[in-house]
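We were asked to recover a plausible sequence for a given structure. The inputs and outputs are reproduced exactly as logged, with field labels preserved.

PROBLEM: sequence recovery
POSITIONS: 220
GIVEN STRUCTURE:
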C-alpha cells in the first residue's frame, strides 16, 4: 500500500525513463485457478508527476498500479501481489481494477476484520472521493458513505507508524476536525519535510478541508 509518507520517497526516486513493461507473465486466480495475464512495469518516467495530500500519485507517464483487481474469468476479487505463477496460461484473460461498487461490496463482506487489504481499499475510496475536488475550488461535501469510510479508515490506522499517523492528520483535516488534526501532527516525532509540514499547517489554520497538490522543494 502506498501512503503519503512513502509516496514522497517514490516521487523523489522515480527516474527519467520512458514507461517500459516487462514480458507478459501469467498468474493463477486463487478462486477459479484460471490464468490471468500480468504486464509488470520495469521502468517509469516520473517527470510531470503530482503528489496529493491524500497520497494520490498522478502522472501522465505512469499508469496507476493495480494491486486489487477483478478476475477476468470469475470476477472474484484478487490481490495481484499475492497470486502465484500459472503453469497453464491457456485462455488467459486480463484482470481489471475494481470499480467503486465492487470495493464497497468487498468491504460489506470483509470490513469487520482489520487488515492491510481493508486499509488499502478504504484509502482508494477516499482518493476517488477526492477526485471531485482536485482541480476546482468546490467546498467538500462528503456523502454519508464517504464520511463513514473516512471514520472507519481512521480506526484502522497505526498511529505508531509515521505514514499512517500522517494520513490520520489529513483525514481529520478533511473531516473538518482541525484541532484534532493539529494535535495528531504534533504527536509525530519522526522528521518530515519542512515543505510538507508548512503546507499542512497552513491549511489547518485556514480551516481548509480540500485536498491539495504538494509543492516539494526541499530534499527528503
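RECOVERED SEQUENCE:
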Amino acid at each position: 500500500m502506498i501512503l503519503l509518507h512513502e509516496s514522497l520517497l517514490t516521487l523523489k526516486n522515480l527516474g527519467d525513463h520512458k514507461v517500459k513493461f516487462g514480458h507478459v507473465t501469467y498468474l493463477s486466480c486463487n478462486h477459479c485457478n484460471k490464468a490471468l495475464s500480468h504486464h509488470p512495469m520495469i521502468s517509469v518516467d516520473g517527470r510531470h508527476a503530482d503528489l496529493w495530500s491524500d497520497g494520490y500519485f498522478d502522472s501522465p507517464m505512469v499508469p496507476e498500479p493495480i494491486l486489487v483487481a477483478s478476475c477476468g474469468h470469475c470476477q472474484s476479487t484478487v490481490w495481484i501481489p499475492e497470486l502465484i505463477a500459472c503453469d497453464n496460461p491457456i485462455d488467459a484473460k486480463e484482470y481489471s481494477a475494481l470499480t467503486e461498487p465492487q470495493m464497497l461490496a468487498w468491504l460489506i463482506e470483509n470490513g469487520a476484520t482489520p487488515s492491510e487489504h481493508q486499509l488499502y481499499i478504504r484509502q482508494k475510496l477516499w482518493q476517488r472521493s477526492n477526485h471531485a475536488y482536485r482541480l476546482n475550488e468546490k467546498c467538500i461535501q462528503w456523502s454519508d458513505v464517504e464520511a463513514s469510510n473516512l471514520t472507519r479508515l481512521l480506526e484502522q490506522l497505526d498511529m505508531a507508524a509515521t505514514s499512517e499517523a500522517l494520513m490520520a492528520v489529513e483525514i481529520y483535516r478533511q473531516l473538518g476536525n482541525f484541532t484534532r488534526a493539529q494535535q495528531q501532527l504534533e504527536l509525530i516525532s519522526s522528521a518530515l519535510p519542512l515543505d510538507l509540514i508548512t503546507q499542512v499547517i497552513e491549511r489547518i489554520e485556514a480551516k481548509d478541508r480540500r485536498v491539495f497538490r504538494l509543492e516539494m522543494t526541499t530534499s527528503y
